[in-house]
Amino acid sequence: MVTPLTARDTLDIAGLERLVERLVIGGVSGIFVLGTTGEAPSLSHRLRREVVEHTCRFVSGRVPVLVGITDTSIVESAQLAAAAADFGADAVVTSAPFYFPAGQPELREFIEELLPELPLPLMLYNMPSLTKTSFSREVVAWALGQEKIVGLKDSSGDLVYFRRMRYLAETARPDWSFLVGPEELLAETVLLGGHGGINGGANLHPTLYVELYQAAKAGDLTRTRELSARVMALSEAIYQVGKHGSAIIKGLKCSLSILGICDDFMAAPFHRFHEAEREIIRGRLGELGIAE
Amino acid sequence: MVTPLTARDTLDIAGLERLVERLVIGGVSGIFVLGTTGEAPSLSHRLRREVVEHTCRFVSGRVPVLVGITDTSIVESAQLAAAAADFGADAVVTSAPFYFPAGQPELREFIEELLPELPLPLMLYNMPSLTKTSFSREVVAWALGQEKIVGLKDSSGDLVYFRRMRYLAETARPDWSFLVGPEELLAETVLLGGHGGINGGANLHPTLYVELYQAAKAGDLTRTRELSARVMALSEAIYQVGKHGSAIIKGLKCSLSILGICDDFMAAPFHRFHEAEREIIRGRLGELGIAE
Amino acid sequence: MVTPLTARDTLDIAGLERLVERLVIGGVSGIFVLGTTGEAPSLSHRLRREVVEHTCRFVSGRVPVLVGITDTSIVESAQLAAAAADFGADAVVTSAPFYFPAGQPELREFIEELLPELPLPLMLYNMPSLTKTSFSREVVAWALGQEKIVGLKDSSGDLVYFRRMRYLAETARPDWSFLVGPEELLAETVLLGGHGGINGGANLHPTLYVELYQAAKAGDLTRTRELSARVMALSEAIYQVGKHGSAIIKGLKCSLSILGICDDFMAAPFHRFHEAEREIIRGRLGELGIAE
Amino acid sequence: MVTPLTARDTLDIAGLERLVERLVIGGVSGIFVLGTTGEAPSLSHRLRREVVEHTCRFVSGRVPVLVGITDTSIVESAQLAAAAADFGADAVVTSAPFYFPAGQPELREFIEELLPELPLPLMLYNMPSLTKTSFSREVVAWALGQEKIVGLKDSSGDLVYFRRMRYLAETARPDWSFLVGPEELLAETVLLGGHGGINGGANLHPTLYVELYQAAKAGDLTRTRELSARVMALSEAIYQVGKHGSAIIKGLKCSLSILGICDDFMAAPFHRFHEAEREIIRGRLGELGIAE
């Protein structure tokens, strides 16, 4: 879920409520706040807690809420996890600490040290392009032995890695959830037995991703191909307007703003699209049949 | 300066005082806290403020204190800068935000947005291996026009970059300070007109780096070569014991602990050296003539 | 196809014949020589021509032969393409030149300059981990307008890229072939409309990959999952024995040697597995039911 | 030395002669052909031999000739080394094989296997940005024990690495030559005891680099600074005109063409500068006082 903002350190609470409703009514299986698409590392710790608090209140138990606690400081991660439990969230999610690239034994020790601090189940979040470190085969093998760890979200875009990790977990932990990051790969992974995706595009068009998930899970190949092509069309139309790595989040927030759902203010170091780019997005939403 | 700790979120205040004294008496031109060697991103924001508070108190105006405010959240950076000014620090230092790799125009906008929040002069800190982004020629050219920005610390290890940026600043801002990161390059840069270095090894042996700086600045080539060889010997002896990128900080803290200056507790995701590595370090300190 | 060798610059011709038979009888749709798995860049140009000559002779028109002409010198690439045509090959394949990382306009110009030299159709080969350069959206868009270019083999492992390029070609060039590199992704790509894979594992067990391809193409999801799991099992068993990036080719050649198909001599900078690793491979072939 | 060409596979022999004269008369200590600046990997093997042949003929023993034999095929490297000896060259130079990134033990084995094939002394060439692999501390330590290996050219731009390797060799092999790649660092390295540089800019202005080398070696700090500033000025003026990594070689060849020394034809994948860029270069040569 994106984090609706109206100013540098100000949550767009009304926008957040509309967004949560859109997602829950759209049929999502859960809501993940404070991930990469949620710009979490760019938000103050105070605002991160505020996001969790209001999201949990708006969701009100209808679907599970997962909270990203990724931080470079284990103290801050633990504090956010405690807050998440207090507000009624269901699980926390952490990637590798992302300033110092930890060696793999150090990464294992980090998770080992974090676990007792967590009042909630933990999902690992593999995001090597931003954290510089992947959870290695050895660390995942260790994690499979930790009851409190319940799954892996893989945003590496490397499906060979995704398959290797699933293969590793198959007999050891059939209860683990394997969720894919890039939404363009939701169809592929679910067809082959993955458990779902955490898809930024669902902010904009939740039913598309929900229906694709259901079609792939049901093994309806024709429908899966058709919906997957629509996911590609949305990706091509909305995520390629900006020039930098921030183009995806900017495209999403701009779209949500055009649809009247929430403000498109971006946390630094990013800024919302200018009018020219906004006009492009507006036109493309029309072509995609995503009405205002 | 390393950050002495006795536990996960507990500052070793007595150790900090001994360390500050060692540095000031050793003749350093200034003290930089909360940099990479200071494990700043791994510390809670509360502890970061505590480091600044006590350091400023112990230094007590004898040398300038520079405070690293690098963070992924501009809100947290601004708050730390405000605290630094309150405690009496002299300047703040920021690298690029390091989770999202900002495009260069985004990086410029980030600094532009941060500047008015800062009650103190700003030094840029180029650290691409950890932030994924270098301050480009264009961004530095822009920064040269900002009165509040007063220099560049370059830890890229890329002296061609360092020289290019100095060349750029030569006529535009002769007042800028150009400080080099890797201490193994202090001699080279100062001989060619750089202004100094921010050297982790000075925690352990401040007079060595101070004397090397003075020799290079005075153009005493024989003495510069001799002292520079000793810097290399220290680097080879102390920084190569660990296996991961954390080896330098671990080696420094372990040495300081052996010398009785401060605790060697490391912030997660790192841990202090085990006894075997500690014995190696102890032996090497002896060989280097750095007495307990 | 791997390149069977008996010594540094000596082709294992009898082994090559057995391997070609195994593949053709196994039902492959074509044979690709002098790719990465074929260690092409490590072979002398003389030996490369010898590989093409004998392969074409042994295949004898039963399936198409594709020849890798990737080189850092356009002159050598063009000469190898001419030889390939003379020997009766069906198409040539080139990646980006891989010493100097060409800028994208330079990469387009390179292909543009190479095209008139080629007596055969050309397939592009995207292999950024080894060539440092990906064929960008703009270059692929240009290539879609070149009649002589007939497809893209993507070994990036990045299925989002693969899908984007297919999306781009969909209406412009429905005749293009999109083949995937990592064999672990054959199922995923073919289920979603990709055209097949160039799979190193087919050297060892051609029918497995052929049957998986057919099942996925037919939309038989149950069989696809079952066969894809066997591909993963082979990958885990055979490709993870060595420590370096060369582990895949070493595992394949070692297996083929154990099966009595061809020698496992490796071109420098690599060497065949030692006896200990060979024993591991032997045991795993047994577990996989791949009989000697 | 750049490789003067008049067409794709045609050496500019008259230009080569003028260039060699310029260098020898300019006072260089040796000539290195078929390096990165010589576009060696982009040339056919036939042309590479031709370059060696004519260079040796034109140099005629006045200074040592070093020949780059870097290739992805050990067979081609050995053949080029044999030709180099036949034509009278003095040493050969090789980087790591650059398609497959060799693991460090594989890299050592590669050099070990190459050594007996070489009729001439070998210098290692560290160029990780293009070969993906650095010669590790362990491999260099092994190389120090090989009599036939006589030095290291380091183009990594990482002076900490350069210093570490020099430190390693100090007592083991005081006869080794340590030469630096980026010419912008010639002053720094020679002042601290390095033995010289292999500087592309010397094609254009040999006396500048020769005089800088002599000043630094003599410890004349004032003159070193002054000449080093002129090297920076040349670098800023000539190497920043193009947009891609090829800008340095294009700038050099364009300058040499303007000066009437040799043709500026570039081997694919590169092309000479267009007229607009040529005009910029022409103007800057004037400003630098490098007359036509």
Describe this structure in words.
The structure is a homotetramer of 292-residue chains. Chain A is α/β, with parallel strands linked by helices and 292 residues long. Chain A has a domain at 5-206: Aldolase class I (TIM Barrel). Chain A has helices spanning 13-26, 45-59, 74-87, 104-114, 128-131, 137-143, 159-172, 186-191, 206-217, 221-238, 247-258, 275-287, and strands at 5-7, 10-11, 31-33, 65-68, 91-94, 122-126, 149-154, 177-180, 196-197. In chain A, strands 3-4-5-6-7-8-9 form a seven-stranded parallel β-sheet. In chain A, strand 1 and strand 2 (10-11) form a beta hairpin. Chain A is globular and about 50 Å long. The A-B interface holds A 8-9, 39, 41-47, 72-76, 79, 96-103, 105-107, 109-110, 113-114, 130, 132, 243-246, 267-271 and B 8-9, 39, 41-47, 72-76, 79, 96-103, 106-107, 109-110, 113-114, 130, 132, 243-246, 267-271.
Brief summary:
The structure is a homotetramer of 292-residue chains. Chain A is α/β, with parallel strands linked by helices.
Estimate the helix proportion of chain A, in percent: 40-55%
Put simply, the count of helices of chain A is 12
Q: What structural category characterises the helix and strand content of chain A?
A: alpha/beta
Find the count of extended strands of chain A (DSSP E, 2+ residues): 9
Biggest interface, chains and residues, is: A-B, 42 and 41 residues
CATH architecture level-2 label of the domain at 5-206 in chain A: Alpha-Beta Barrel
- What fraction strand of chain A? 5-15%
User: Any idea what the radius of gyration of chain A is?
Assistant: 18 Å
Give a quick account of the main beta sheet of chain A: strands, pairing sense, barrel closure.
Answer: 7 strands, parallel
CATH class of the domain at 5-206 in chain A: Alpha Beta
Order of neighbouring strands in the sheet with most strands of chain A: 3-4-5-6-7-8-9
| CATH topology descriptor of the domain at 5-206 in chain A | TIM Barrel
CATH homologous superfamily descriptor of the domain at 5-206 in chain A:
Aldolase class I
